[in-house]
Design goal:
By secondary structure, this protein is α+β, with helices and mostly antiparallel strands. It contains 23 helices and 31 strands. The strands form 7 sheets. It has an 8-stranded mixed β-sheet, sandwiched between helices. The chain has a 6-stranded mixed β-sheet with strand order 19-18-17-23-26-27. A hairpin with a 5-residue loop joins β26 (744-749) and β27. The chain is globular. The relative contact order is 0.12. Residues 1-13 and 27-35 have low confidence and may be disordered.
C-alpha cells in the first residue's frame, strides 16, 4: 500500500505557497494504517472499549511524538533537535543570552533570534500577534515568552543544553521596567430583561439589540461599565441603563427578597494532556519544499498559519510547497487548538535547511509555554423571592486573566458570561466580562471554556440561597430550571431538547441524596460526612462549525470513511463509523481521521469571517456554488459527535437513498411505480441485513454489488456548516432534487470518480444568529458523598453519581470514558491543581509534576462512581456534545458537599487538605 499524500488545497493566492494537508503515513504503511484505521474487518476489536485502544496500549507509532526522521520515507536519516529558550522574567529588559553557559559540548549549530526573523521577513499571523521571539532591548510581554530558538545537530548536545537551560541563567536581563502595559483583550456586557409573561417578547436582550461593549476606559485600562451621557456608544448606554437598573434592584432593601452578594475566584491550571506538544519538520532547499509533522486540534488553521508565517519571507526562506502531515494527539482539552507551537517547528526547519529537526517540549517546557485555563475573579449577585423561591434577578462581573497572548481570551470571556446562569430561567440578568493581559503564561481554550468557572460560582451561590430560604436544594433548582422553549440570557431558546427536570428527578431519587441525613448522622469516628449536588448545562458548538466527510462502499459491501476531525482520545473514528452504520448498515472497514486532504472534488472556496460577515456579504458570496462560510474547523471533544460526524452521516444517507435502496428494490423485484418504492424510511438495518416488513431480508454485500452493477450512488463526499443551525442545500441526484443539511456535495456512481454536484439552492443560517450565545446544550447532574478526617483534613469521596443526557449515543464506551475522565478532572480542579500567576508560577520554567499534583486513583471513587446516560428522547434525536458538561457539576457538587460536612463555604479554588483541616479545627 502506497503512502497517501493527497493534496487538499492548492492555494496559490496565499503568498504563492502551495499547501498540502495530509494524514501521516509511512513507507511501511500497511502496518501503520492497520493501527490508524478504525474500526473494521480484520482489525481486532476488544469486547468493550475503543478499537484504537490496543494500538495505543501496545505502543504503536501513532502520535506526533513517536516519530523521527528515519520513520518517514524520503526524509534524511538523522534527526536534529531544537529547543526554545523562554523568558523567566517579564519585568526587566531582555539584553541577550550567554552561549558560554552551555559549555563546549552543548553548543547549538544554529541560533535564531528576533533579529533573524525580521531579517528573513517572517510574519506572526494575526491570531498570534506580537513578537514570536522577544527582541533584545525589549521587556518580554509575558513569562515564558520565547527569546531564542536553538538548533542542535546531535541529540547529546541538545540534551546537555536542555538541562543547563533549566537553571534560568541562560537569558540575560538589564534595567527594571515593570510589566509591559497592554490594553485589555476585550470587554462585553450581556443584559436581558424579560417581558411580563414567558410568552411575551423580551424588553431588552442581546439577540434583539446585539452584543455591546463599553466605549470608555479608566486610566488603568479597565472598562467603565456605568452608562456615560456621551454621544459615542449609544447602543451601550441603552443596554447598560437596563443593567444598572437590575443592579439597583439587587442592592435594594426589600424584605420579601433574599439577596446574596458573593465573590468567587478560580485558579489557573494546566490541561495536562499526556503528550506534550511536539513536531518534526524538514526543509528541502533544492525542491523548496517544507514537510512538517504535527499533532494539533486545528490542522487547517495550523497550515494556513504556516503559509502566512513564511508567505513574504526572502527567497531562501520561502518554500514553494508546505506539506503538513497530522498524527494522532495524546490529549488536547483545548490546549492544542490554535497554539503557536507549529510556527516554531517550521522556523527550526527553515533555519537548518536539509536537516530534519524535531522540536518537542518536555514537561517543564510544556508547563512554561503551554496554554492554560483562565483564572477568573467573579462577583455574583442573586435575588430570590422568599415566598415563591423563584430567582428574580442575577448580576455578575467577571475578570479573566488572559496571560501574555490574547489567544481565545475574548471568546472564553463571552462563553463564560453567556453561560453564567447555567440551567436557570432568570427574567433579569446583567453580566459584565473583561479579559485582561498580564505577564502570566498565556491562557486560552480549555475544557469547560470559561463556564466551568462561572457555573461553579453560580451553583455554590444557588446552594447557599436554597439553604438560606430554606428550600431543599434540588427542589429549589426544580422551581427555577429553564423549561423547553424558555429563553437563555441572550434571549433565544435552545433548539435542542432540554431535560433538566428529568435529571433533577434522577438526582432526587438517588440513594446518595435520599440517605444523606442518615449518613451524616453516623460518620466513622473522627470523620465528618457531607453530600453535595449540582446541575449544569454546557453549550456545544461555536456558531461557525464545519465538517468534511466522505464515505464509499465497494461491490463487496466494504465501507471506507474519511473525516477531517482529529483523534485526540475522543473516539471520533469510532463515532464516524457508528453514525454512518445507521444508514448503510455495515461498520466501516477503513476510517481515517484528520483527513483534510481528500476532498478536492468539492472544489470549495471561502472568504470573509464566518463570525462577522454581514448578511449582504453572505448572500453575495453564496451565489458562487462552491462558496462556504468556512472550510474546516478545529476539533474539540465536545463537538465531535455533533459536528465531526455530520458530513459523513449526510453522505451515508445519500448513498442509501440513491444507491443501496434502488439496488434493494431491484433485488426485491419492486418497480419504481410501486408505492413501496417510496417507503425507504420504513426499512431498517439489523447488523448488515436490510429489513423491510413483508419482504425477504437482504445482505449488504448483495445490495452493494447490485448498486455497483446499476451504477447507483456508491460514494458521497460532503461539507456541512453550522451557525446554530445547519446550512441546507438542494442537489439534483439521479434526476431528483434532494435536500440535506450540507452545503456542498460530490458523488460517485458505480466505480467511477467523484463529481461535484452543482447545488441548486443553499440556505445558510442568517448572520444575525451570531448574536446567539448558544442554541445547543447538554445537561449533567452530579451527587457526591464525602468523608473528611477531622485530624488531618484528608477528604475521601465515598460515593458519586452523575447523570447526563447527550442525545443519540454513538459510542457508549467513549461517553462513559469521557464522563469518568471529566469526574477526575473536576476533582483535581477542586482539590489539588493550581498554578501561581506570575514569577512563582509555570512561567519560571521550574514547574513539573512534583509541584503540580493531578487527581490520582487514590483521590477518586474508582469503584463507587456511577454514571447514568439517559437514552435519547426519540430514535432520530441527533448526537449532542457532552465531553465538557460531565466535568462542570463535579466541582460545585464537591464544594457543596464540603459545606455540608464542615459548615464552611469556600470561595476560591482549590480547597486543599490544609484548608479543610483548619476549617475543622
Amino acid at each position: 500500500m502506497e503512502a497517501s499524500r493527497r493534496k487538499f488545497l492548492k492555494l496559490a493566492a496565499i503568498s504563492g505557497i502551495t499547501l498540502g494537508v495530509s494524514r501521516l503515513a509511512l513507507a511501511d504503511s500497511s502496518a501503520f494504517l492497520a493501527h490508524e484505521t478504525l474500526p473494521g474487518r480484520g482489525v481486532w476489536k476488544p469486547a468493550a472499549g475503543r478499537v484504537d485502544g490496543v494500538a495505543k496500549a501496545t505502543g504503536a507509532k501513532l502520535y506526533a511524538s513517536d516519530f523521527r526522521a528515519s520513520d518517514l520515507p524520503g526524509w534524511p536519516a538523522n534527526t536534529s533537535h531544537a529547543l526554545l529558550a523562554r523568558a523567566a522574567d517579564a519585568t526587566h529588559v531582555y539584553v541577550g543570552f550567554d552561549l558560554t553557559r552551555l559549555g563546549k559540548d552543548a553548543q547549538p549549530s544554529v541560533v535564531v533570534t528576533a533579529e533573524d526573523l525580521a531579517r528573513i521577513g517572517a510574519r506572526a499571523p494575526e491570531f498570534y500577534a506580537g513578537d514570536l521571539l522577544c527582541p533584545v532591548g525589549k521587556t518580554p510581554s509575558y513569562l515564558g515568552q520565547p527569546a531564542a530558538l536553538l538548533i542542535f545537530e546531535t541529540f547529546d548536545a541538545f540534551d546537555r543544553a536542555r538541562l543547563v537551560l533549566r537553571d534560568g541563567d541562560f537569558l540575560k536581563f538589564g534595567a527594571e521596567t515593570g510589566p509591559v502595559d497592554v490594553p485589555n483583550y476585550g470587554a462585553f456586557r450581556f443584559t436581558r430583561v424579560a417581558g411580563a409573561t414567558p410568552d411575551a417578547p423580551d424588553i431588552y436582550s442581546p439577540l434583539q439589540e446585539g452584543w455591546i461593549s463599553p466605549g470608555l476606559l479608566e486610566s488603568s485600562g479597565r472598562p467603565i461599565w456605568k452608562p456615560m451621557p456621551v454621544a459615542k456608544g449609544g447602543e451601550y448606554v441603552k443596554g447598560a441603563t437596563y443593567g444598572e437598573a437590575i443592579r439597583a434592584r439587587l442592592a435594594g432593601d426589600d424584605p420579601a427578597v433574599l439577596t446574596l452578594d458573593r465573590q468567587f475566584e478560580t485558579q489557573s491550571v494546566d490541561p495536562m494532556f499526556l503528550e506534550p506538544e511536539c513536531g518534526l519538520a524538514w526543509y528541502d532547499p533544492h525542491a523548496a519544499n517544507l514537510e512538517i509533522v504535527l499533532g494539533v486540534q486545528s490542522p487547517f488553521e495550523a497550515t494556513e498559519a504556516l503559509a502566512f508565517l513564511l508567505g513574504e519571507a526572502k527567497a531562501d526562506f520561502k518554500p514553494k510547497n508546505i506539506d503538513a502531515q497530522f498524527a494522532y494527539i495524546g490529549g488536547g482539552f483545548g490546549g492544542r487548538d490554535h497554539t503557536p507551537f507549529p510556527l516554531y517547528v517550521a522556523l527550526a526547519a527553515m533555519f537548518y535547511p536539509g536537516h530534519a529537526v524535531r522540536l518537542a517540549h518536555d514537561r517543564l517546557q510544556q508547563f512554561q509555554g503551554g496554554v492554560k485555563r483562565h483564572a477568573i475573579k467573579m462577583r455574583s449577585q442573586i435575588g430570590v423571592d422568599r415566598a415563591s423561591g423563584l430567582i428574580t434577578a442575577f448580576a455578575a462581573d467577571h475578570v479573566l486573566d488572559g496571560g501574555g497572548l490574547m489567544n481565545y481570551s475574548i471568546s472564553v470571556a463571552v462563553v463564560a458570561a453567556t453561560g453564567a446562569i447555567g440551567i436557570y430561567d432568570i427574567p433579569k440578568v446583567d453580566v459584565t466580562t473583561v479579559a485582561v493581559h498580564s505577564r502570566g503564561v498565556t491562557a486560552g481554550s480549555m475544557r469547560g471554556y470559561g463556564t466551568l468557572q462561572t457555573m461553579t460560582a453560580l451553583e455554590v451561590l444557588v446552594d447557599e440561597a436554597a439553604a438560606a430560604l430554606p428550600i431543599d436544594p434540588i427542589e429549589f433548582r426544580r422551581r427555577n430550571a429553564l423549561r423547553p422553549g424558555g429563553r437563555t440570557m441572550t434571549g433565544n431558546p435552545y433548539s435542542v431538547s432540554v431535560r433538566t427536570q428529568e435529571i433533577l428527578d434522577k438526582l432526587d431519587k438517588h440513594p446518595i441524596w435520599r440517605t444523606r441525613v442518615e449518613e451524616k448522622a453516623r460518620p466513622k469516628p473522627g470523620f465528618v460526612v457531607g453530600v453535595g449536588v449540582a446541575c449544569s448545562a454546557k453549550d456545544y458548538g461555536t456558531g461557525a462549525d464545519c465538517t468534511l466527510g466522505s464515505i464509499e462502499i465497494d461491490p463487496n459491501g466494504r465501507i471506507s470513511i474519511h473525516g477531517d476531525a482529529v483523534e485526540m482520545g475522543n473516539g471520533i473514528g469510532t463515532a464516524l463509523a457508528n453514525r454512518a452504520a445507521l444508514h448503510v448498515g455495515g461498520i466501516a472497514d477503513e476510517v481515517t481521521v484528520a483527513q483534510v486532504d481528500v476532498f478536492d472534488a468539492l472544489e470549495l472556496t471561502t472568504s470573509g469571517d464566518a463570525y462577522t460577515i454581514t448578511q449582504t456579504a453572505q448572500d453575495e458570496a453564496a451565489k458562487n456554488p462552491r462558496w462556504v462560510p468556512a472550510i474546516s474547523s478545529a476539533t474539540s471533544a465536545s463537538i465531535g459527535a455533533h459536528v465531526g460526524t455530520q458530513a459523513v452521516a449526510e453522505a451515508a444517507r445519500i448513498i442509501f437513498r440513491f444507491g443501496l435502496w434502488p439496488a434493494a428494490l431491484s433485488l426485491w423485484g419492486i418497480e419504481s411505480t410501486d408505492p413501496r418504492a417510496k417507503q425507504s424510511d420504513e426499512a431498517y438495518w439489523q447488523g448488515e441485513t436490510l429489513i423491510m416488513t413483508g419482504l425477504s431480508p437482504l445482505p449488504l454485500s448483495a445490495i452493494a454489488a447490485k448498486a455497483h452493477a446499476q451504477k447507483g450512488v456508491t460514494g458521497a463526499m460532503a461539507h456541512a456548516f453550522s451557525r446554530w443551525a445547519w446550512a441546507q442545500g438542494v442537489f439534483n441526484i439521479a434526476g431528483e432534487d434532494w435536500t440535506a443539511d450540507i452545503d456542498a456535495l460530490a458523488v460517485r456512481y458505480g466505480g467511477g470518480k467523484f463529481t461535484r454536484l452543482h447545488r441548486k439552492m443553499v440556505a445558510f443560517p442568517p448572520t444575525d444568529y451570531n448574536r446567539i450565545g448558544t442554541a445547543f446544550s447538554s445537561l449533567c447532574g452530579t451527587l457526591v458523598r464525602i468523608e473528611i478526617e477531622r485530624a488531618t483534613g484528608a477528604l475521601h469521596i465515598a460515593r458519586a453519581y452523575s447523570v447526563l443526557e447527550c442525545g443519540k449515543v454513538l459510542v457508549p464506551e467513549v461517553v462513559l470514558g469521557q464522563a469518568q475522565g471529566g469526574f477526575a478532572m473536576g476533582v483535581g480542579y477542586t482539590l489539588l491543581e493550581t498554578l501561581p500567576p506570575f514569577e512563582d508560577g509555570p512561567g519560571n520554567g521550574q514547574w513539573n509534576l512534583g509541584q503540580y499534583v493531578v487527581a490520582r486513583g487514590s483521590d477518586l471513587p474508582l469503584h463507587d462512581l456511577e454514571i447514568e446516560i439517559l437514552p435519547p428522547l426519540a430514535s432520530n434525536e441527533p448526537p449532542k456534545g457532552m465531553a465538557e458538561v460531565v466535568m462542570i457539576p463535579v466541582v460545585p457538587a464537591l464544594l457543596n458537599a464540603i459545606f455540608d460536612a464542615t459548615g464552611r463555604r469556600f470561595q476560591s479554588l482549590p480547597v486543599t487538605q490544609d484548608m479543610l483541616k483548619q476549617a475543622l479545627a
